[in-house]
Amino acid sequence: MTFEQMWAGIASVGRSAATRGYFRQPYTSAELELRAWFTEECTRRGLDVEADGNGNLVAWWGSGDGAVLTGSHLDSVLDGGAYDGPLGVVSSLAAVDLLRDRGVTPRRPIGIGVFADEEGSRFGIGCLGSQLATGLLAVEDARVMRDRDGRLLEDVMAAAGLEPGLGRAAWLDRVGCYVELHVEQGRNLVDRDAAVGVASGIWPHGRWRFDFDGEANHAGATRMEDRRDPMVTFAQTALVARAEALSSGQRATFGRIEATPNGTNAVPSRVAAWLDARAEDDELLSGLVHTLEQAAADRAGLDGTAVTVTAESLSAAVEFDPALAARIAAPGGWPVIPTQAGHDAGILQTAGIPTAMLFVRNPTGISHSPEEYAGTGDCLAGVEALADTLQELTR
C-alpha cells in the first residue's frame, strides 16, 4: 500500500465536518481507531507489535538490540491538523516498504513507535507516553493525573481496553537511536526553499497556570470604578505577554482560559488562564516568565485583584545528537534548523538515547490548526529521506 493510499485511508478519522479540524484525543474512539489501523498495517507487513502499560505501541522489523527506532504519535490537539504526528507514523510504514522494495535487509532491527498523548491535550502534560516509558515522569505523579472531566489516567486507559502498567518500558532497552519525522511547525524550510530539514534542537518550553481572583458582581449595576474584575487583570497580562515576546524574539501564548461563573451579565470572580512560554534558552525562558508574573502582580495591585501562578510543566532545552544530525543531513544536503515545538524525540534525547528529527516542509507554516498542510511531493521526499536514514543507520 502506497503512502498516498495509507494517508487517504485515515484522512476522515476524527475529522470535524464543521471545522475540518481533527479531534483525536487520547483513548477516545478516533485515536483508538487509528491505533487499530496501525496494528493492522504492521501485521500485514509481518512486523511484531507490542504494547507497553503506558499506552505506547512499538512494531519491530527484526530482532536483537541496538535498534533504530522511528515513528511519532497519532493523537491531536483540539481541532488540530492532519499532519502533526500521523505524518511520521505513515511515513515510517512507507519507509519500511521502500527499503524492502530496494531489497534492503537491515543488520540492526528497525522499530516503529506510536507514542501516547504526545500533545498533552487531555491530561495537561505533553509527551505523556514517552515520558512514562523513559521514566522521566514518575509513576506516582501519573497515577493522580486527571483529565478535564476529572477522570483518572489509569481509569481512562482501562475503559479504552488497555492494560495500564505505568512505568519504564522494557522495549526501550533495545533501542540504540531514534529518528522522528514530523511536519515542520513553522516556515524555516519555506524560507530556505527546502523540502526536508534536520533538527538541531528544541527550545525550552513550559506551561503555567495563572489564577486571577476578584469579586463577582452585577455587570450593569456595578460602576466601573467599583469593580475588582480579574478579567481585566488577565487581559492586561496577556497584552504584556505579547509585547515581551515580540520585543525579545521569544514565544508567549495564553491559549486557554476559564472564567467563573462565566455569565454574560456578571463580573467574574475568577479567571484561570494557561500560559505557554518558549524561548531560545533556559535563562531567557525563566526571565520571560518572571517578567509576566511580576506584570500580573503589579496589575492585580491596581485592579484590586490577586494572582497566583503555578508551574504545571517545564521542559528544558534539548540539543539533539550533533554527530547523528550531521550524518543524516550530509547525504541530502538538508539544512539543520531548530524547532520551537516539543516532541517525543526531545524526551528520548533527554533520556540518553541519541536522537534526530527530520522535518517536512509546511508551505503555510501553520500548525495545530485545520490549515496545517504538507504537499504530497514533499511528503514523498520525506519518506525517501527517512528510508535513506534508516538504511544508513542499520548498515
UniProtKB/TrEMBL annotation:
Pfam families to which the protein is assigned, alphabetical: Peptidase_M20
Gene3D superfamilies, per database record: 3.30.70.360, Zn peptidases (3.40.630.10)
Keyword Transport: no
InterPro entries, per database record: Amidase_Cbmase, Bact_exopeptidase_dim_dom, Peptidase_M20
Keywords annotated in UniProt: Hydrolase
The family this protein is said to belong to: Belongs to the peptidase M20 family.
Stored PANTHER family: ALLANTOATE AMIDOHYDROLASE, ALLANTOATE DEIMINASE-RELATED
Protein name according to UniProt: Allantoate amidohydrolase
Species in which this protein is naturally found: Nocardioides jiangxiensis
